[in-house]
Amino acid sequence: MVEIVDAKNIVLEWVFGSREGDIAGKMGQILVLIKLFFLVPLLFGKKPEERFKFEEIKDDLEGGSEAFPLVLVQIPIANEVEVYKLSIGATCNFSWPTDRLIIQVLDDSSDQTTKDLIEKECNKWANEGINIRYQSRGTREGYKAGALKHGMDQDYVEQCEYVALFDVDFQPEPDFLRRAIPFLIHNPKLALVQTRWRFSNADACLLTRLQEISLDFHFKFEQEVGSSGYGFFGFNGSGGIWRINAMYDAGGWDWRTTAEDMDLSVRAALKGWEFLYLGNIQVKSELPSSVKAHRSQQHRWFCAPANLFRITLVQIAINKKVSLKKKLYMILSFFFVRKIVGHVFVFLFYFVVLPLTILFPEVVLRKDGAIVAPCLITALNTLIGTPRSLYLILHWTLFETAMSFRRTKAIFVGLFRAKSVNEWIVTEKLGDSLNNKTNIESTAPKHHGVLQAKALKDRILLPELGIAVFLLACGCYGFFYGKEYYYYVYMLLQIIFVTLVGFSCFGLKNM
Prior knowledge:
By secondary structure, the chain is of the alpha/beta class. 57% of the residues lie in helices and 9% in strands.
């Protein structure tokens, strides 16, 4: 309790200047925060091989493949013609006995040409001896969760013990199953093994570099700490393996929210199951490379967890199978702070409170803390998570602040079940666009003029531009009539980033 109180005091001192202290002293205090919440669990937590039993599955020339459990691989697809070959090809090359593997391609595409291409790809691998099944249900009810549930309802799935899930742009290595499955075999309380995402297009543009920093932080800190300290974290929806009995015990796939992966994780945790994160197993995937695609993904990633928190709060609080420590972690840290309060605070503090203090000089806030503290924390996180992007600290801080409006809006939509609470837009991907150029052109609409007008409209984000104008007005007033001129340099940079987001200037293109 003493450590928590100290951490709270450090934050209050930085922001409101409740005590005297120089910048060096404040930096030292921020280092204490990092140590308390991240470095201690990371450095002193045991490695997965030390906490869980692991024995490699050995090939038996005489006994055949009997030592290998039957594994189902699910690949959900919905009109993703640019990347449909990636996960199919990668999973068909698993170094796992072919008679102990079933690959299930779940195609929810609405375009018949796309469906034909995907089915043709499946038939090609089937002719090479791979046990691959093409499933198309003719509806998008329940979106991804509906497709996965439809796949699990097939008769041949009853023989399987585990199910590995990969979004269509994921490319697991051939030894993926051999490295991950033994943890589930030898540890019956484990329901889920989640692996780390890596990004094939991280160097495509500034937008993807900034996303890489965010997601590396998520995996290196949030998933690692949740796994090593509490045995719980949210399933990422791809690059993971579930014990099928645990899925059934938790109630299976449900589409009451579009965070179906997190929903299943919470229900399984409340049944007493444990989860394991394996950061040393990495799977390539693709990051959104346009502001439009990133924006729609962020809406789903923040709206759905807020909605899920509203649904499950009481269930978590009254659950008797989970320890008080884990329940507090799930409610306060996993949901309340990381999914809701943290992002709402960033928006309100940097876009409302700080600008308004310029108009009311009698309100005193420590603006050095508002600038230095987040940059310092980002520097430390980046140094551990993505050291190659250390020089992008300021860019990342400004971009994350600029995106806080969209995230805050999504959070309130989820909390109050507004109109777009269950909106699902498939994140558009580029994939191997050059090689698939013919396929893309064959499925593209022909009304180019209408598309160009719509694309231009999608590029202009009026709320962000309105925020930029508000910040500019407050900044000009403060510059001419206030003090602390150094702060307005940072404020000008923030205005520039919000404006760039408002005109969708980040990314390769606006798809």
